[in-house]
Amino acid sequence: MSVTPRISARTARFAGVAAAATALTLGVAGSASACNISEFSAEAICDGDQGVITVKDVDSSGTLATVTLFTGEGSAEKLVGTKTVAGSREGTTITFAENWAPNTHYRIHVKTKQYNVDDDIKGGVTTPSTACATEKPTTPPATPEPSSPAPSDATPSASTPAETATPSPSVAESTSPAAPAPANSASPAGGSDLAETGANSNTGLFAGIAAALVVAGGGVVFALRKRGAAQR
Question: How many Cβ atoms are within 10 Å of 70's Cβ, its own excluded?
């Protein structure tokens, strides 16, 4: 037996072992990089006042996956929405706009055509106990205070005393009294002494009538005496 066939057979065995090891290594590496459900996670968070649910895919193979979000349980379960995502080593996140209520459970299902992933994210996601939008207390509008009416020109206000009218000086007060006439001053022409006592101009008439009545009465008395003497 020559040496050359032995070397060739030994070399062939070494080459086969190396090839098998390489295939095994590649297979393990491929399995490690394959998409699986453990590479998906979900979280309920707030985006301002709006509630959202995010799903993150850290599949480094970039396998396209369909993510479906459900709420409720059993026959009451309903579909919230469906989105697709291609994972990455750093992680790719998709967002479902869902104004969730506190302490609400959601189920997230992931399905891929490659690697035959068709499963739910373990545990799903349960929302926090506090809602995103908190109701702000409404303050009733302040009631305006009634304004005091402006005082009119005709009616004085209660706080301002009415102005006291200053009486104008009378004619008698503003005019100095006339000086009395001298006692020995001559009476006006054609006047009598009775005018100085305050009598009016009819005094002479009354005096004449009285004198006439006296004379008439004397005549009547004289006539009666004479008639009485004759009858005796």
Answer: 18
Q: What letter represents residue 68's amino acid?
A: T
Token readout for 27 is: 């297979």
Length reported for the chain:
232
In contact, 67 and 96? CB cutoff 8 Å? no
Burial of 53 (0-12, 13-18, 19+ CB in 10 A): buried
Count the neighbouring beta carbons within 10 Å of the beta carbon of residue 107: 18
Rounded to an integer, what distance in angstroms lies between the CA atom of residue 15 and that of residue 21? 10
Query: What is the torsion angle, in degrees rounded to the nearest 10, for the CA atoms of residue 65, residue 70, residue 73 and residue 75?
Result: -100
- Output the CA–CA distances (angstroms, integers) from residue 221 to 210, 216, 227, 230, in the order listed: 17, 9, 10, 14
Where is 47: in which H helix or E strand?
A: strand 40-47
Question: Could you tell me which residues are beta bridge partners of residue 44?
Answer: 53
What is the DSSP pairing of strand 92-97 with strand 125-126?
A: unpaired
Cβ atoms of 82 and 68 closer than 8 Å? yes
φ/ψ (deg, to 5) at 119: -155, 165
23-28 contact pairs (CB < 8 A, 24+): none
Task: Give the tens place of pLDDT for each residue, 32-87.
Answer: 567 899 999 999 999 999 999 999 999 999 999 999 999 998 899 999 999 999 99
Rounded-to-integer distance, Cα 4 and Cα 114, Å: 48
For the record, the structure tokens of 115 come out as 């690697």
